Amino acid sequence: MTYLSIGLRVLLTLAFVAAGFAKLSGVEMMVATYDAIGVGQWFRYLTGIIEIGGAVLLWLPRRQVLAAGLLGATMVGAVLAHLFILGPSAVPAVILGLISAAVIYLHRDQIDETLGRTA
Question: Where is the signal peptide (predicted)?
C-alpha cells in the first residue's frame, strides 16, 4: 500500500503543481478560463494557491487526508464548472478527483484525527 500511496501522491503532485503554477503565472488559457467562468481573476489565484498548497500537504506527515480532501473538493468545483459553464470535457478533473479519493481511502486512518475526534 505504501508504494501505491506514493505513486498516487506523485501523480497528484505533478498535476496540481503544474496547474497551480499555470494559474499563478497567468497562462493565457487559465486567464481565459476564469474569464469564462465569470468569478474574477482573484479566484484563479486562490485556486492556484490551493492546488500548490494541497500538493505540498500531500507530503507532510499525517496530512494526506486533509490534502486529498482539499484537492478533491477543488476537482468537484472543476467538474461542475466544466459541466455547466465551460464544456466540453470534465474527464481530467474527474480522474484527478478519483485519485484524490483513492488517497483518502488509503489514509483513512487519519480521518478521525483530521476531524478532531478521539478514538
Answer: none
Return d(Cα 89, Cα 83) in angstroms, integer. Answer: 8
- Name the domain count of the chain: 1
Residue 113 has pLDDT above 70, yes or no: yes
Q: Which has more pLDDT, 12 or 117?
A: 12
Q: DSSP string spanning the chain?
A: -HHHHHHHHHHHHHHHHHHHHHHHTT-HHHHHHHHHHTS-HHHHHHHHHHHHHHHHHTTSTT-HHHHHHHHHHHHHHHHHHIIIII-S--HHHHHHHHHHHHHHHHTGGGHHHHTT---
The whole-angstrom separation of Cα 56 and Cα 59 is: 6
Domain containing 70 equals: 2-114
119 inside domain: no
